[in-house]
Structures are given as structure tokens and as C-alpha cells.
Amino acid sequence: MPHTDSQATPSEAALLARLPSALDAALKAPAYAAHLAGIDPAAVTDRAALARLPVLRKGEMPARQREALPFGGFVPGTAGGFPRLFTSPGPIFEPQRAGEDPWGGAPALAAAGFTAGEVVLNTFGYHLTPGGFIFDTAARALGCAVIPAGPGNTEQQLDLIEAYRPAGYVGTPDFLKVLLDAGAKAGRDVSSIVKALVSGAAFPPSLQAEFRERGIAAAQAYATADVGFIAYEVPGEPGLLVGDGLILEIVRPGTGDPVPEGEVGEIVVTVPDRDRPLIRYALGDLTAALPGGRIRGWMGRADQAAKVKGMFVRPEQVAEIARRHPGLGRLRLVVTRADEADVMTLRAEAATPETTLAEAVAETLRAVTKLRGAVDLVAPGSLPNDGKVIADERPVG
Q1: Which pLDDT belongs to residue 3?
Q2: What is the pLDDT, as a whole number, of residue 386?
Q3: Which of 11, 77, 86, 180 is the most buried (most CB within 10 A)?
Q4: What's the pLDDT score for residue 5?
């Protein structure tokens, strides 16, 4: 978060003090040693010195990791030294840090009104990706009991709600609406859910208002698989509060240069952890700084990746679809919103727009992205020649 060094909070001062040790550990990883060649860890103790280090872009990690499995040479230890090992769309391979709340989520849940002794329905996925565990460990660190429900299986979820009477929900806002609508339609009692912490998908004002009308106080968090909780909503306060476990910078997209407070730029995070150091890690997400250690929240992508229903879709995946269907021309994956849910439509140039081809491309889209989407075959040359393969047309704010 853009503080000047003279204004650094006590928690940030402690993080800055840990930077030399974390950099020393990072230099023991071969790829980091090359990336940070020539730096003096002992000299990096403030934001100005940190800003002189090179940025490492998340978008590069799938290719870097393929060159040196599993972590691309950016982790000092071995895979066997971590509690859990995950993969995120890309794919990006992620180790879990040690500790009771390794992703730093308990403060976000507390800010959203969750308290010890409550039951929490966790609908983030537990299979291979870390989302479920990120929120699970946070809730248990707070003293809550967790139902590891995962996504989908709506009927069974309604059974769980009626049996365990969870007060809280964690998951995407879209799926909370699905559960509430399904419960109302089937006459099921889901009234125990009175609070929620949502993430992983757009949470527009219209859906926020709907949850309020249904008696649910829903806050939002900004989290990623590799970092964990980055910022979270404190009800009644502006923007999102940046978490205590990381140093957040906002830089001009495509550079590592910090921008002034209020200017939109790309989020770069540093996590000074010796086992899993992240040094100036550019996430590709856009935001702007607010006073008091806050950010405006997610404001779009600095690159062309888009988060759809809690999962990232990347240009590399669109390229893979094109590779599997060489007869297609240009492709553009358009992401919109309909009925308070994310919607994907792949527009593809095809000389012969046959139904069987559209069906085959749709199946490839699902296989590659793990998400369902429509396919719209269009005439050759009808898509813009602007290099854009993912168009996120969802409203911001």
C-alpha cells in the first residue's frame, strides 16, 4: 500500500525489517538468484529500495514453471517441505506456507462479522486448487467450525444448511445467489445464513443490495491463490483494507514504477516469507490507492487474463483452443454478466459456421478452461485485428 516511509505503519515497518532476510532466502532459489542478480539484500529496507528491484509477473509463471518444474526455480526449498501442494489455472503450481492461517484470512472474516463458535459453509473448491483451504484455515483460525462443501451439488448443500444451520457463507457471490434462489424455490430453510465473505467473482451493487434485502450482511475480499488475502472490506469504511502480511505497491502497467495515490495502476505485492518469498510479484490486476492503507478494490486487468466464476482464464488458453481447431481464424473470448452471473462467449471466425463445429469448439472451451461458455461462429475477418483475445465487458464498480 502506498505509504511514504515516514508514514509507515508499525505492521509495515515490521515487514520492511524482514525484507533483507526474505531476499537472502530468495537468492537461494536459482531463478530468483538470476532475476535479482547483483542486489544487496541488506540495503533493501524501505519502499524506495524495494521499488528499484525488478518486477516478476504472474503471467510469466506458467512458462517459467514448465522450464523447471514444479516452481520454476522461485522457491528456495523442495516440494516435500510444504504442507500442501496445489495447482491453479494456467497452470501455476503453488505450495502452501506453514502456519495456522497461512494465507492471512482470519482478520478478513472477523471484519465481516464472523466470530468463534459459528458454523461456516465453505463453497470454495478443495480439489487441487487452494481456494477452499484458504478460507477453511482462516475460519478455523478464528475458531469457527467449517463445512467443507465445495462448489455445486445445490440440493446437498441445502441439506447441509438445514442440518448444521451455518451462520456464515464463504464462496463466490454468484453461488450464494444460486443457493438462496434454489432454497426459496424448493421451500427450504436457509435463513440461518446471515453473513457472508465473498470473493472470486464480480460483486456488483445490484447483487449487494439483493443480499441486504434477504437479510445477509455480505462483505468482499480480494485474494489470490499464490498470495492469499490481499485486501478485504471493513463494513462502513471505504474501499478494501490491505492485509498486514504483505507490502502492496501500485505501479504503472508494464513497468515497476509506483504511481501516485489515486492513480489506477497494477498491483504488485511482496511477501517477505523465507520459505515462500514473493518479491515484487505483479498480479496483473488494476486498482488505485485510497488514504489509510486502503485500495479501491479490483478494477480490471492490466493484462488480458480475466477471472470468471472464481477462476482465471488466460490468453494462453485461448491459444490452445485455436491450436486444437486450426481451421478457425481469430478468436475473442468475451466475458459479460447476465442474471448476476459471469457469462463467457467465445467468438470465433470460421469459413463454415456449422453446428457440429460450434459444439466441438464449445467442448474444447470447457476442457481447456474448466468453465462452460457459448460459442458464436462469425465470418472470417469480422473480428478486430487488435491483438485482443479476451474482452472483459463486465461493468466495474
Answers
A1: 46
A2: 62
A3: 86
A4: 43
CB contact burial 310-339 (16+ within 10 A = b; e otherwise) = bbbbbbbbbebbbeeeeebebbbbbbebee
**256-285 burial by CB neighbour count: b if 16+ within 10 A, else e?**
bebbeeeebbbbbbbbbbebbbbbbbbbbb
CA-angle at 331, arms to 328 and 334, nearest 5°:
145
Smallest CA-to-CA distance from 109 within 132, 133, 130, 140 is with 140
Q: What is the DSSP letter of 29?
A: S
- What sign does the CA torsion over 368, 372, 377, 383 have? negative
User: What is the domain range of residue 380?
Assistant: 306-392
365 in any annotated domain: yes
61: CB partners within 8 A, 6+ apart: 72, 74, 90, 92
Reading the block at residue 14, the C-alpha cell is 515490521
The CATH number given to whatever domain includes residue 351 is 3.30.300.30
Residue 338 maps to a domain: yes
Count of structural domains, the chain: 1
